[in-house]
């Protein structure tokens, strides 16, 4: 028998953000410091983060902390043919969810601070783009340093860039300012996009290039 969905019934695609929101909130309650947000990013913030990827065949984009995958979905739409993607996710549940949801993309279960070792282990080139959903300000200082060292190592001497976001309400907080100050020391180029108001909470997208 043919199955049909009445116009008033929510489809799977409409239910997904709700289910993702609930699942995400559950992970936040368990690991508030590493999950760092109560809701996944909206598609508007995700698209602003991903922007234009402009990757040549064989080039790699790495995403840190894809969570339930809102930015991953935007990457999948924008990924040029022949280029590669690797998501690095610390949370095992999110990692499992991502591998099921995006069967054509690769995900590593581990820490973004280990970028170099992960790329070597997988025989991947240095990435041309690094996108990050990491809650940077709430990560332990040693992880922050490891993540930034890895980004600089990957992008130095290339025209690649790093993109992340910071929530507007937390933009002036000490930890957020510390992150930007550290990045400013290590990169010659900086651009701030937004605020992206169609996100809870609104956020700025930050882009860095010219790793020193
Ligand atoms: C604020 S959530 C963002 C999730 C998703 N990118 C979004 O925008 O909805 C942060 C994500 O980073 C992950 N995470 C935290 N520390 C990490 C680390 N050291 N390496 C990789 N992922 C990490 C968390 O498990 C979580 O999925």
Q: Which structural class is indicated by helix and strand composition? A: alpha/beta
Bound molecules: S-adenosylmethionine
Largest sheet: 7 strands, mixed
CATH architecture assignment: 3-Layer(aba) Sandwich
Q: What is Rg?
A: 17 Å
The helix content, as a percent range, equals: 40-55%
Strand content: 15-25%
CATH topology: Rossmann fold
What is the overall pLDDT average?
89
Enumerate the strands of the largest sheet in spatial order, edge to edge or round the barrel.
3-2-1-4-5-7-6
Order of helices and strands: HHHEHEHEHEHEHEE
Determine the N-to-C terminus distance.
Answer: 63 Å
Number of helices: 8
Quick one: how many beta strands? Answer: 7
CATH superfamily: Vaccinia Virus protein VP39
- Just give the CATH class: Alpha Beta
Q: Could you say which overall geometry the principal axes of the C-alpha atoms support?
A: globular
């Amino acid at each position: 028998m043919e199955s049909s969905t009445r116009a008033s019934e929510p489809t799977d695609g409409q239910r997904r953000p709700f289910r993702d929101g609930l699942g995400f909130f559950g992970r936040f309650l368990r690991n508030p410091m590493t999950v760092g947000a109560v809701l996944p990013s909206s598609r508007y913030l995700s698209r602003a983060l991903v922007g234009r990827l402009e990757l040549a065949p064989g080039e790699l984009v790495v995403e840190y902390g894809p969570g339930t995958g809102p930015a991953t979905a935007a990457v999948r739409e924008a990924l040029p043919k022949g280029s590669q993607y690797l998501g690095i996710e610390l949370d095992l549940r999110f990692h499992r969810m991502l591998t099921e949801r995006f069967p054509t993309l690769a995900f590593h279960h581990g820490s973004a601070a280990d970028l170099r070792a992960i790329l070597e282990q997988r025989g991947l080139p240095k990435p041309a783009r690094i996108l990050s959903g990491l809650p940077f300000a709430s990560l332990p200082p040693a992880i922050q340093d490891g993540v930034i060292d890895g980004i600089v190592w990957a992008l130095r001497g290339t025209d690649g860039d790093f993109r992340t976001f910071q929530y507007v309400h937390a933009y002036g907080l000490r930890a957020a300012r510390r992150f930007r100050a550290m990045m400013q020391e290590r990169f010659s180029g900086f651009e701030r996009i937004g605020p992206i108001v169609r996100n809870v909470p609104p956020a700025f997208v930050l882009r860095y290039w010219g790793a020193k």
